[in-house]
Give the backbone structure.
Amino acid sequence: MKTDKLSILLLVAVALAALAGCALPTAPAASSGAEAGAGSAPVEVKIWHMEQPPHRVERIQQLIDEFNAANPGIVVSQEPQNWGEIYTKAPAAVAAGNAPELLFAIPDFTPILNRLGKVQPMEEFVAEMDALYSFYPSAVEPYTYDDHTWAVPLYNMAHSMWYRKSVFAEAGITPPTTWDELLVAVEALTQEGQYGIGLPANKQLYTDQVVYDFMVNAGADEIYNEDGTLRFNNPQTVEAYDFYRQLYQFSPPDSPNWTWGEAEACFANRTCAIIPQFTVITTYDTQAEGDPEDLGVMAIPHSSNVDASGTIAYSNAVMLLTEDPAKQAAAQEFLRFLLTPGNYGRFLNMEPGLFLPVTEAGSQDESFWNDPLAVKYQSQLETMVENAKNGRLFGFTNGNTFPSIAAISAQNLVAQTAQLVVIDGLSAADAVAEGQRLMEEALAE
Amino acid sequence: MALKPYQKLLVYASWAAVLLFFLTPIVWFWALALRPQATAFAMPPVFWFRPQLDAFYYTFVDPGINAPQLRNSILVSTGATLLNLPFALAAAYALARFPLRGKRFFLLWYLSLLMAPPVVYLIPYFILMSRLHLTGSYLSMVLILQTLTIPMSIWLLKSFIDEVPVELEEAAAVDGAGWFVRLTQITLPLTLPGIVVTSMFAFVFSWNNVVFPLVLSNQATMTLPVGTMNYFATAGITWNYIAATSVMAMLPPMAIFLLLGRYIVRGLTFGAVKG
């Protein structure tokens, strides 16, 4: 009997030891300085962002460290999150009362949080920053609806078409500006071991983005009518999807499943002559020739029914989720620091050649242009900045901003429509009609 | 029955095909981790290259961003395995030896926990851990991983305990041994290979789980599979770092299975031949 009791005690001890061993101190590194002098605890500001690659996290941490050192009363910390989970995790965090003070966002993420009543209006702060640094209107527009501006734009991402000048020269073509020219070009560029263009066609975000590039350039950038009803099923959208189908013939057979990385790889290994992408600069520089004289970037060609090229552009922003005035003030102080020229360029260069400025002052910020990669690929970056000025985002155009777009984009219905055309072989007209039906269904849910 | 030469050839060819099918992705990843970055996507593919450890050095030594994540994975998986064992063992023993009411129901319930995709439980667990102020702690991951490891371990351990002749315990009971003595002195030593196998599976289940650490960890407690995912982005994807961290993530489970392989064979064939 004695042995029994001893053994039970032993088992309990093992279980407790396991638990204790696991409950090691786990405070985030960045908040280690949270304790201040007695009686005056600093204001803590937690940031959730989705820029997880380690070098981006490191750059943000550098800026946070500088800010914390210069502002002893505030402790900012970061927690990188994953885009895949944030759509469910952030609302859950709000429900659990554990939301961060600052949360990065893209336009169609903001309405989801907004519905929970936690997102703070930021129009006054945006106006203050606008007076100092001049926001590009297209960066602020997607966050302005219901009489408020719900987030502070921080950086922009816009698609361009990437190519090699030498490959074009060899095929005897010049950079196309219209769809007719693009079709001729990709046909000419499709040769032994090379595809004219790389296009995705699966139900995921990259396909959404690339398809929308063509919708914008067919004049189908609006998904909503002014009264909030859907206008996806229209001749311009059908034209865009039909052109996508035609182009797709010159894309690699495995391209439907691609996301951004595979497209970059296809370009880097010269299998794709052209790809639509936010940037290829880092990959081209490290995994391909790295010759800035040969890397070409152009605006996405447009239909003959449209006057000028446009593109998809994501104005990335940050939402304020706290109602505590002290935390609000501290968070805004950090955002002021981030948008200040000198800091802002370094912030954008957490991923050189990808993130573009959302302010006039940012476009001239030396710290943005001084990065070695920006120096090397300056002309490409200038073209990207120029292309981004004609950026659009489905559901957030021309003031026709309707938060219900979140339901459509969350289900990648623009991409699903492309899949119906390219993979399932439906005509563009039938696929777009089905796409509108799916969208109406999503909105009804 | 000796095989004819052409039959042998066929058998070896089949083995080679199966091996090729399973090993190619692993070998390809090893090569991606070891090859110079500039040759990662060269077309035609570069098969011969001078292997280099740059990607491993960057990810695990200097700056070594993923080294703490490797440690975190070991801590979380070991913790989950250790915590799982006493509970699973006790439950399995009870289900195997005692005439409990609703035994079948309990077993099916445990099985159903394994059938549902873990992502279903993600948000409730996140809210629960948030309310307990445990998000970002190792403990939160270790606790939540029990929802996977305990049901699996109970099923495995119960089948191992079932194979130990109950007569041995009955004989001990006649000599005055209580259930705990019978468990620890008779059943446990006889099911040791099964316990080792179960622990290995619990460790590997925990090691490979991404979903729970993805939402429950923070920067300081992030596990290696989550750290690997962080290299995926919309641009500038560093495939060689992804490959290096993936290769490192493969190593501990591989090492465990290689080192303790004999237990697997013994464990999995335990009771296969009944007297």
